[in-house]
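Hi X.,

You mentioned you wanted examples for the new student's onboarding notes, showing what a folding record looks like when two proteins sit in one file. Here is a clean example. The first protein comes first, with its sequence line followed by its structure tokens.
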Amino acid sequence: MSVEGLTKMTKIEVVVAGEHAPAVREQFRSAGATGFTSVSGVSGLGHNGYHQGRLLFNQQAALELLITVVPDARSGALIAGLRRLLEDSPGVMFVTDTYVSRPEYFS
């Protein structure tokens, strides 16, 4: 893969119950993330079995996937905060290196 001309950053994806999504968004903001993507009604198979993506009673009943991209220098504090959050609530976090074409959007 060629990444010439692109800027390396860190992508963080978090899957949590809808009721915990506001706390994840606050962690993103506190770490200086300039934006995020949120996908409601996520489904999948995990340690607690299959989770369906449909809403049961309200938005909080479904799983939500939140994604942000931050400069590497901001990722450590954000990851630490999210790890603390996930100690007390179910969910998973994925951290990957990514490359962006417009780094000014993320700083």
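Then the second protein repeats the pattern, sequence line and then tokens:
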Amino acid sequence: MSNQTERQSWSNRLAYIMTVAGATVGFGATWRFPYLVGQHGGGAYVALFCLAMIVIGIPMILVENVIGRRMRVNAIDAFGGQANGKKIHRAWKILGYMGLVGAFGILAYYMVLGGWVLNYIGSLLTGALDLSQPVTVETTANFYKESIQHNSWAIIGYTGLFVLVNFFILEKGIVDGIERSVKYLMPILFIFLIVMVIRNVTLPGAMEGIRFYLMPDFSKITPQLFVFVLGQVFFALSLGFGVLITLSSYLDKGENLVRTATITGIMNTVIAVLAGFMIFPSLFSFGVAPDSGPTLVFQSLPIVFSNMWGGTVFAVIFFGLLVVAALTTSLTIYEVIITSLQEKTKMSRKWAIAVTLGVIFLLGNIPSVLGDNEWKSVTIMGKSIFDAFDYFSGNVFFVLTALGTAIFVGFVLKDEAKEELGAGKTFTNIWFNYVKYIVPIIILVIFFSSI
């Protein structure tokens, strides 16, 4: 009971929603979503994404909220205690440990992406990347190769700087650190996003990009594409690695979980869709292909900015937006591991933060950077170290952990899960049976399609 009585709570509902929104926005909405839209038929992908948010996103947010708030403890012990008068077998805590391993995996490469973005901002401010005149595909490709792929120690330095920013915020705690920073960071993100959207939709020829983005090509809609979209929803909402379980463990018992889950799903969808509006109109306006994949943001968009009036300024704003989005997410993923370390080992918060960030930096971030250069010959199942962290965290650990949480709610918590949800009887029964019988099938389809 000590963890529950000493545990902080969010100051208010808005603070919690803003923090969860920050946790679920990140690179999933601002980097990954746009390039996947470009690769998979524009509007078709957008339409399926919105549908998938309803089919799997919001129900799974509620699953993790119920698990997290029930015990108000870390993401490991959240799978313990009693349910329906019986002690829950300790083997269920394996799900919590799997979530922590997945969180380690995503932070191992996620923080490096933050380092890439900081490198771009630094290069723009110093003129190393000059967008005052139109540049070519070759120019941006060469810059990416020289400043990212073949510049390991600079990227390690930028990644370390990004880690330090996280450290200084995290050491202040849940309320004074994460909540207070997100209170300022999320409005900044929205302002930057709106500025970029307004600038890009008013460009000559922007309507062609908007048409590509919003008009679905139904021939592109296939069962396989829907499975891919479902996987993106898991990535976008930070499902399966303990983030929402941890954040909801600080949630007041009187809070309406259905309302907060719905708002979370809507905000994530809106921001992801807005991210497309700040990218595709400009791509089509300047004749840049939208299907360049993961390098869309780093190689294709600088070409667009170089052809735009005030392009350098807007490029700095855009990459600043990416840093803010990455920061609001990384803080909450780190918190999953930090909270678990604190409560499982009785370690002080400052030491838990130092150990978490330090170990991930040494064993995850540095290998991820070196894996594209000095350690290029080191592969894991044919993948570079960076890609291996991405693949195994996103396609194995997160999906299996999410499957386990749905089964845990449906077959272990049972009536206790319904009571924790605290919604109307009809809605609760529909949600519970859907999570118990349908969601596991959907997750298994995602899993076997991704491996």
